[in-house]
Amino acid sequence: MHAMPGRSNAINIAERLGFPNVAVENARDLHGTASAKINQVIEDMENLKQKVDEHIHEARNHHRLGRELYRKLVISEGRIREHGSSLKYRKIQEISEAGKVARSILHKRVRQRRASPTSNLAAASKPENENERMLASFTSGQSTTRTEKDTATVMLNDKQQPSEKIVKSGDTVHVSKFN
Predict the structure, then answer these.
(1) Is the pTM here over 0.85, yes or no?
(2) What is the spatial distance between Cα 104 and Cα 135, in angstroms, rounded to a whole number?
(3) CA within 20 to 30 Å of 173's CA: 30, 53, 102, 121, which one?
(4) pLDDT tens readout for residues 155-168
């Protein structure tokens, strides 16, 4: 028989020790149904205690898992911040490099114009590579696509009306004043 706190096994022990059956049966009658009810209450309390212990164990596991998830969340948050900083730094480097290229192109054009102020304006302003074409489109506010033929307004002389005609590669163009 399983021993439970508050439960008396005295009658069962007396029976095993060899007490006369009449004495054991009288004791059971005197002990009565009240004792059975008390024993049932004690048994219910034991079952409830086991359930509470199970719930406490489960709650501890959930608490441990919650702490672990929080730790992983903090680590992930740090990694996300680190990645964001890395991306910002890379973008800053790319912008800085683009600025260097743009300054280089501008300085090159300034040197070209200073070196040959009488040169053909269209030839001096024609971008030589993709970076210069992008810079020219950015500064003019136009898209980066170029047409096959460049057009220009050509003044025949100062006294005549301006006329528009398509300038082809190799044509001579007179510019009255170069600013």
Answers:
(1) no
(2) 11
(3) 102
(4) 333 344 445 567 67
